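pls design
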């Protein structure tokens, strides 16, 4: 799998956070794909890490809403399973502690909940 270091500064949700979706409400399906352009797989990094992503078949919007569309959403970044940011961009610089880390980037729907199936990339990095 590709290398993922997706960590973004700044959350800035516009509007109110959405309530959890109803259990019986189907999640939208997205054909979007997410890719990590930087850092390259196998990179050993130091200090701040530049993360560049590519999103195809979807667009990032700033509005948080329950009006869901399969081609609109946000990016969530996680390090070691913990969300570190929600972003409206594909190019970020983040600081990550020294050591090996699991990195995830996920394209989620306008309500900040996952598409079905999920649009996610996962990888590991090492920071010295």
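designed seq:
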């Amino acid at each position: 799998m590709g290398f993922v270091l997706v960590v973004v500064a700044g959350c800035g949700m516009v509007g109110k956070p959405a309530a959890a979706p109803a259990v019986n409400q189907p999640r939208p399906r997205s054909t979007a794909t997410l890719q990590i352009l930087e850092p390259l797989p196998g990179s050993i990094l130091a200090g701040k890490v530049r993360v560049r992503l590519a999103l195809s078949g979807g667009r990032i919007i700033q509005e948080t809403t329950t009006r869901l569309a399969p081609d609109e959403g946000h990016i969530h970044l996680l390090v070691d399973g913990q969300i570190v940011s929600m972003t409206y961009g594909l190019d970020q610089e983040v600081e990550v502690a020294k050591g090996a880390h699991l990195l995830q980037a996920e394209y989620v729907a306008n309500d900040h909940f996952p598409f079905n199936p999920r649009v996610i990339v996962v990888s590991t990095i090492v920071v010295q």
